[in-house]
UniProtKB/TrEMBL annotation:
InterPro entries: RNaseH-like_sf (IPR012337), RNaseH_sf (IPR036397). The keyword Hydrolase applies. This is Exonuclease. It comes from the Bacteria. Signal peptide: none annotated. It comes from Niastella populi.
Amino acid sequence: MAYIMVDIESDGPIPGDYSMICFGAVLVDEQLSKTFYGKCKPISNKFIPEALAVSGFSREETMAFDDAAIVMRSFADWIKQVAKDRPVFISDNNGFDWMFICWYFHHFTGSNPFGFSSQNLGSLYKGLVKDTFQNFKHLRKTAHTHNPVDDARGNAEALLALKRNYGLKIKL
């Protein structure tokens, strides 16, 4: 399996009514050098200024981003290029990140290369340490900046630490 760590930024809480502004992905391997960064033009007139502010972009800047259909086709092509076998979606907050990526893939390309499931890094860590009150964030090396490639890389570093330091059996 090819684990692909994903992080997204949006201008609201749900896809369709609101827009995914940008997202980053990192193929999880020892190098963490294969990355994807997409910036999508808003698909809705609705946005929540506080949510958009997290991305670091203004509404005006986002209006110049690429059409979401083009970005999602490019992302699908990148996944095919880097995934030697079945791609597995994993993220820090997969309930949120997956919702946008899955919706955008189906809406703009007609299918999702990840299939119909995702994995949550935080839940994986909690299971390994047998404590639902713990979190993995201390395992990141790359600062969490809300640049989605940085954030995905930091989360991928944490997943690699789970393999090295906690004995997680995972084939990368």
